[in-house]
Amino acid sequence: MRISIFGLGYVGVISLACLARDGHEVVGVDIDPTKLDLIRRGQSPVIEEGIQELMQQVCASGRVSVTTDVNEAVERSDISFICVGTPSGANGSQDLTAVLRLTEQLGIALGKKFGFHTLVLRSTVQPGTLEEHMAPLLEQHSGKRAGEAFGLCFQPEFLREGTSIKDYDNPPFTIVGSNSERATAQLRELFQHLPCEFLSTQVRTAEMLKMACNAFHALKIGFANEVGRIAQALSVDSHEVMRLLCKDTRLNISPAYLRPGFAFGGSCLPKDLRALTYIAKGHDVNTPLLGSLLASNRVHIDHAVDQILKSGARQVGMLGLAFKTGTDDLRESPLVIVAKRLIGEGITLRIYDPQVNLSRLIGANRRYIEESIPHIGSMMSSSMTHMLEGAQAVLVGIYNQELGEQLRAAVQPSQRIIDLVNMPQRQGLPNPYSGVCW
Ligand SMILES: NC(=O)c1ccc[n+]([C@@H]2O[C@H](COP(=O)([O-])OP(=O)(O)OC[C@H]3O[C@@H](n4cnc5c(N)ncnc54)[C@H](O)[C@@H]3O)[C@@H](O)[C@H]2O)c1
Q: Is this model's pTM higher than 0.90 or not?
């Protein structure tokens, strides 16, 4: 294919060299003449394992050229990759100046070009950038329609500096968010040789995904280092702890606990987090990340309570009270906290949880609920139907197939569903609906 690459930093240079290595004709564009001169001489403007040799080889092949002329680069290519920087502004916001300035120039170039052209953004950008900023600018400057005369895609880059050629050839997956099937097909063809899945998704999803991936990587590093510092203070081998932690691929290194849903609770997580951060404090070990988890959980509960209050419902049905489906353990259940808050706000509440039978509760579980909500007995319903009677909104806090069927059979179309569990097969329900974080 004939490819142009805009922005010859780490991402652009690796793409240019690897695409040329794979047999494509590539034209590189940058505003920095020093970078272009280096490439003209067969040298790489960035230092990466193997890049000098590769750059020399691809430049000698005659498949690489460089220019500062955006129109020429668009004219001489079928696909353009945009790899300019998106640095932090002084207040932490993402500075899109380079992306948007280039977008204007690309719009003008598209206006002059005959035939379909595909633009692929590889820079990391905030969700909405393509649809809300780039597409209108491109349409305005080209006089053409996005998705018709030109394709606009976001394909996040997952390379890591230091191992970027290896990462380019072995990405975790190829993700493309696109407004055009034709453009997606071009990218599928271009990257089909890579040993990974090719996934197409919505543009905004792809934009958000890249930011979520980087945040997750930072979270993992912060977590491992905080565990390391606590282990160090306690004379525990931190590497052995984390090595063994990673061996659990069922609960630890797995999709478990990684679905947006409701707050955590129960008899272990909050208690043991408190204990761990207390131990850290006792050894003068500062662990802001671990220390923030209970606060983050509280914010999530507040968010659910706000959602119920904002719905305007004064009578609310709650499906679930225990900390998860299928248990009667009420200790530190976030649903108990929600119930308490709603009662405090003067909401009339009815609660149905088939596993929770107050007369059968014993020990710490009973003490917890008696201390948290002493009059809970009068709010408990013995059936789904009773819980839903008169409710303007129903909060779905636990779920299984049987409860789903019961709910579907008894809920009135006017009752708002506030979903904490990401109810499956909810599409057919006519009810007003809101998810807690979706
Ligand atoms: N560095 C990485 O490992 C990495 C990995 C994945 C994603 N990303 C993302 O990719 C993007 C680029 O990162 P980078 O590290 O390669 O950036 P970089 O700062 O090294 O390179 C950006 C290049 O764009 C050029 N440029 C700026 N305006 C231009 C214009 N109008 N026309 C042509 N060129 C222009 C600059 O001169 C510079 O050479 C960023 O959004 C970054 O977040 C980076």
A: yes
